[in-house]
Design a protein that fits this description.
By secondary structure, the chain is an alpha+beta fold. Among the domains are: 24-213, no CATH class; 224-326, Immunoglobulins (Immunoglobulin-like, Sandwich), CATH 2.60.40; 328-559, Alpha/alpha barrel (Glycosyltransferase). It is 26% helix and 19% strand. The chain has a five-stranded mixed beta sheet, with no helix packed on it. A five-stranded antiparallel beta sheet has the order 5-9-8-7-6, with no helix packed on it. The protein starts with 11 loop residues before the first helix and ends in a 6-residue tail after the last helix. Residues 332-790 form the Glycoside hydrolase family domain. Belongs to the glycosyl hydrolase 9 (cellulase E) family.
């Protein structure tokens, strides 16, 4: 479900509906935690003790122990067998869940039109950590057989900890239990000696003694962070980071100027540098005056190193990063996975071999008996559009008609539910733009799509999959529907191909039509000399939609003065100008642009957003533009890009913001890089300042962060396992690759996030104490963190990695 404005709170309804004794030795070397495979105890393990997930050095005198507790056994769909005492709740909730209760206690929900499938609740199994046994540092002892300083067991000096939820088990209609990750930080009386072996014991009966070997030249440490994706040899910004936040122990202080190395796959040191302070814990990182790390962060720069190979960043006395590659294909591989996240979000098609290992039956297709009904409600008028304050749950179902739209299939699912809405056209436009900027590169790139054998580049096929959905629904008068939405949020346990709610199509409106025109005119222009027949189809469709929107945009209703309608008209007029070269469209552009005056920002929250129009105007032939206006646009565009550079320079991990004052969360979070304007500025100027800033800004979301997590599924050594994808959750599969989640949530701004309050029993310290850069919990139902949209997260991520892959190498 996409938020029209990134800061708008999501309806609680989406969450309600979608919730559906031996001594153990561990040597914390690089292979120790290769992919973070959970080792939690689970059902049937009897008295087996908890197994540490990993043990790693934080500093020469601090050791961290990470322990996973709890294992979620997910509910499954199965044939419903009615038993004595069962009672079926008849649509008691607005979401129409059909709960099955036995002697008053809920067992699960019925699924599907025939109500013959049953979806049971989850279960949580496994032991827990006895935290009370870890609170007294005198009870935690460390001993070594080969380090004389620890020949006799000694108590550690202090124990600090943090705990985060790792997964959720819905055990009743509104009850949850949590699988968790505990990280214990032990400050030692004396620094460890490299090459020596140590054993830590505690009075916790659930955790056996832990034996490890300290070898910082090979140990992996969570304190050392680098992009999992790697770097192209000619990337102008290659960095890694050093930082640690110990929960109730606060930040770790590291001396500035420590030695670090790049170590190749044979263990040879190939580059040496010194750490420098990126940002102190008391320094603000954005326009809101906040520090998002709660600890000092040091940076390690190896930008001049260009030799292809596989490497780790290692810091003296501390440890090493995950392995990463330097090579010519790193961004192409990342782009391939990311853009195929769109394929995995396709509606109206079955997913499976030979195109993907992720399996999903065809959903929302008329050949399967699915009916889409025309409604008289407009998208623009409800809470899914730009103006309406009324929930679509109230407005849309009551305007259902008997008219069936047999061609209303296709498009992209948004995220946690099944809507396909006009805002998704933004994704198609970004893909076409990449093809415009780098035609030769994307002409050759095979994305393994069902359309890969046709005469079009795969990136264009993906863009057309989405655009064609709206074109097929175009009304006789040329108007474009805002898309399709079910009359309620998904029922508990019900997958996309089992939807039982009414499926409704919005009535066309000018705003939706303008947004469509911007994409349809763009693809018609791209196709003009390549496939004239298809180009003519989209040209005619764009003209008809534009004519409709121009007839009705000024209709006196609450939406006609809204800035988003003006911005949509502005961009559509510009797309029509490029397509037709008719001067009347420049007149419409002039009437709606903010750039008639100098020094106007290309985007201002809640006033205008003309970033896309500005870039397009600067790419138009000079004879289609007005010189003074073009100069104003140029000045504003590059001022915006320079501002984003400064934003990245202030942040410790070099992420950047389009709006320096925007809070981090939802569509403004760090799961996807904020680099589009920087990359566009690079295209226009070929100035490496913008390319370097964009490369640096892309690294946090690629794994160079305190969680050592790539925020796109299927990439790197760690990525989200529990994004808010109902089909994945119900079928029990690994998530489809290429899904970029929202990411961290700023506790200072989102202090009242409703689901965070539910997670409080599984969280320590309290929510308000967490740094933003660690405030991401990989939990299916943590909507503000684990949800996503195709245009807010997947699209910008694919654009960034696609640009970095396709750009030409500089002449050096």
């Amino acid at each position: 479900m996409r938020l029209t404005q990134a800061l708008s709170p999501i309806s609680l309804a989406i969450a309600l509906a979608t919730l559906s004794g031996v001594v153990y030795s561990v040597y914390f070397q690089a292979a120790n935690v290769a992919r973070g495979t959970p080792q939690s105890t689970s059902q049937g393990l009897g008295e087996q003790r908890l197994t540490p997930q990993q043990v790693y050095p934080v500093r020469s005198d601090i050791v961290a122990i990470e322990i996973h507790t709890g294992h979620v056994i997910r509910g499954k769909q199965q044939r419903f067998q009615r038993q004595f005492g069962d009672y079926i709740t008849p649509h008691r909730h607005a979401t129409k869940d059909d709960w099955v209760k036995r002697f008053g206690r809920a067992r699960g929900a019925l699924v599907g039109h025939d109500r013959k499938q049953f979806y049971g609740f989850d279960r949580l199994t496994g032991k827990d950590l006895n935290i009370s046994n870890w609170r007294n540092s005198e009870n935690i002892r460390i001993q070594s057989s080969d380090d004389p300083r620890y020949r006799s067991a000694q108590s550690v000096k202090s124990v600090h900890r943090k705990m985060r939820p790792r997964d959720t088990a819905q055990i009743d209609t509104w009850k949850f239990q949590w699988a968790t990750t505990h990280t214990l930080y032990l400050t030692l009386p004396t620094a460890l000696t490299p090459g020596k072996t140590y054993t830590i014991t505690s009075p916790d009966p659930n955790v056996a003694p832990i034996t490890f070997r300290y070898q910082p030249t090979t140990n992996r440490s969570e304190a050392v962070q680098v992009s999992h994706l790697g770097f192209r040899p000619d990337d102008p910004g290659k960095v890694a980071f050093l930082s640690a936040w110990m929960g109730d122990g606060g930040g770790v202080n590291y001396p500035i100027g420590q030695t670090f190395w790049l170590v190749n796959s044979q263990g040879k040191q190939v580059f040496t540098g010194k750490t420098r302070r990126s940002r102190r814990a008391d320094e603000a990182e954005d326009g809101r005056g906040l520090n998002h790390n709660h600890t000092d962060v040091d940076v390690m720069d190896f930008s001049d190193f260009q030799q292809p190979g596989q490497y780790r960043v290692c810091v003296a006395t501390i440890g090493c990063s995950f392995p990463f590659k330097i090579g010519p294909q790193v961004w192409q591989s990342a782009f391939y996975t990311s853009v195929r996240g769109l394929y995995h979000q396709r509606s109206g098609i079955a997913l499976g071999a030979p195109y993907t290992s992720y399996k999903r039956p065809r959903a929302f297709h008329p050949n399967d008996g699915v009916k889409v009904y025309q409604a008289t409600a407009r998208l623009v008028d409800n809470d899914q559009g730009i103006w309406g304050k009324t929930s679509f749950l109230k407005l849309l179902p009551q305007t259902k008609t008997t008219k069936i739209l047999p061609q209303a299939w296709g498009g992209y699912f948004d995220a946690g539910d099944w809507d396909r809405r006009i805002q998704h056209v933004e994704v198609s436009r970004s893909l076409i733009e990449l093809a415009e900027l780098f035609p030769d590169y994307f002409e050759r790139l095979n994305l393994n799509l069902p359309e890969s054998n046709n005469q079009l580049p795969d990136i264009i096929d993906e863009a057309l999959w989405n655009l064609d959905f709206y074109r097929r629904m175009q009304a006789a008068d040329g108007g474009i529907s805002g898309g399709i939405q079910s009359a309620s949020y998904p029922k508990t346990g019900e997958a996309s191909w089992q939807e039982t709610a009414d499926i409704l199509a919005y009535k066309p409106d000018p705003w939706s039509s303008y947004l469509y025109v911007a994409g349809a005119a763009q693809i018609a222009h791209w196709l003009r000399d390549r496939q004239p027949k298809l180009a003519a189809t989209y040209r005619l469709s764009a003209v008809r939609a534009m004519d409709y929107a121009e007839r009705y945009w000024h209709k006196p209703d609450p939406s006609h003065k809204h800035f988003q309608l003006r911005d949509a008209r502005n961009l559509a007029a510009l797309a029509m100008l490029r397509l037709t070269e008719q001067t009347k469209w420049h007149q419409v552009f002039e009437a709606t642009t903010v750039f008639t005056k100098r020094d106007i920002p290309i985007e201002k929250w809640d006033f205008h957003d003309q970033r896309d129009a500005a870039f397009l105007y600067l790419r138009l032939p000079a004879h289609l533009t007005q010189a003074k206006l073009r100069q104003n646009v140029h000045e504003s565009f590059f001022k915006a890009a320079d501002k984003i550079i400064r934003s990245g320079q202030k942040s410790a991990h070099k992420w950047a913001k389009e709006d320096d004052n925007a809070p981090i969360g939802w569509g403004n979070s760090l799961g996807s890089p904020k680099t589009v304007t920087l990359l566009r500025a690079h295209h226009l100027s070929q100035d490496d300042r913008y390319l370097k800033a964009a490369t640096l800004a892309s690294q946090f979301s690629a794994g160079a962060n305190p969680l050592n997590l790539v925020y796109t599924t299927g990439l790197g050594h760690r990525s989200p396992r529990n994004p808010l994808i109902i089909d994945q959750r119900i079928t029990g599969q690994a998530p489809p690759p290429g899904i970029t989640v929202y990411g961290p949530l700023n506790p200072a701004f989102f202090k009242n996030d409703w689901f965070t309050k539910l997670m409080e029993p599984a969280m320590y310290p309290a929510w308000s104490k967490w740094p933003t850069t660690e405030a991401y919990f990989d939990v299916f139902t943590s909507v503000a963190m684990s949800e996503f949209t195709v245009m807010q997260t997947i699209g910008p991520t694919a654009y960034t990695w696609g640009y970095l892959a396709a750009r030409q190498s500089p002449n050096r």
